[in-house]
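Deviation from plan, reported transparently: fe (ii) ion complex.
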Amino acid sequence: MGGDRRILALLSEQQQENQRVREALIRVNVGANVVDSPAGIGTSIAAGGVDLVVCDAQTMEPQRAHELVLSNVPDGERQPVFLALVDSFDRDRLGREPAFAHFLARPFRAETLTALCRSLLEDIRSDVSTDRTLAVAIRQPARFSARPLYADAVSFARESLARGREGLAPDMGWARLVAERLHTSLVQSNLLLNRALEPHQRFDLSTHSVNVAIFAGKIAHSRDLPLDSTLRAIEAGLVHDIGMARLPESILFKESGLSAEERQEMERHPTLGAELIAQLGPSYGWLERAIRQEHERAGGQGYPEGLAQEEIDPIARVLGVADVFEAFSHTRAYRSPFTAYEALERVVAMREEYFDGAIVDALANEISVFPLDSYVKLSSGAIGRVIATNPGNLMRPTIEVLWNESWAPIDPKIMALDQVPDIAIERPLHESEVPIT
Ligand SMILES: [Fe+2]
Ligand SMILES: [Fe+2]
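Because the crystal trials were delayed, the predicted structure below was used instead.
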């Protein structure tokens, strides 16, 4: 017993620290299979047999790693014990939150880590405290999870659509509360953004609205807009499609393309929405405008009025970019979603003709095209990991090249793509494509 116990470790970038932890884990002496590819965590867990996950908080946010682990545990298999290595600041922070995992705070001795891992694995083996471990493991600290906040926002959007169906305006006091909470989270971390980018099985107007609100908030934040304008952009995102509630479901959920007549009906939704908002009186004139104009496009291609450029309300311009990006990155009845990268590429391609370019740039700034630690295939055929982004050219980050074109590991080589003009990124790799080294 024990020889088949596997430890999956997501280790620090820092070579020395990485080595120290790695050795400590091997000393655990349970046939530790130490792997250190954050991108491959899902695949490794899904392959089964992992008993302990050790996650360095500097490599991957523990909550995110933990969620990835939970969602990949094969059916019928017990979830692995989760140990997060955190620095002392984190420990302070975590001390105030309920824990979802075991934590070891720096500075720690290698022997301590070895001993802790042994005892955690002993616990599993003897089943003595499995219940305790599992109970601890499923409690999630609010600070690390955007889930409840996202769910609250979806409830608001759902309720607003229900009111819309009755011909009632949304409760904007509630909208402001939701917007404030979303904003606080958006400036602290990318948890909400990641959630907004998650694929869904089918189109749902409430989650669409929340996602648009999140993207709009990110754009406003990136543009350094005053707090009140940022909150307004988020509020507007939450209710931007309220007019849809006035349309028959046969049009909203139609699987195939719309007839010309149905399309015309569909294109009434900004006007219908603005009419609902108008009930709130002149103090919400800004919102009425934003909603009426969310489908206007800079080149005059939009509807209902075919306004162009500066004629379009500034919040409506933000909503337009956020809305199109949301649509590209999620499922529609007639197609599966594009990756965030492809969705952004499409929005960027529309930049000149359809949008306010500065707003597209703001979105691109917030959505990392190639996030840190993601894997990419280069035009040379080699495969590497993004280790630094390049604000001057998002398409040319710095890569640590790890494999050759036939996936044979090579001596890691650092390559700043802006200094190697003849090599480009061919495509981002999904984490399931990357082997665990
Ligand atoms: Fe819309
Ligand atoms: Fe929309």
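The longest helix spans residues 147-165. We consider this an acceptable substitute for the interim report.
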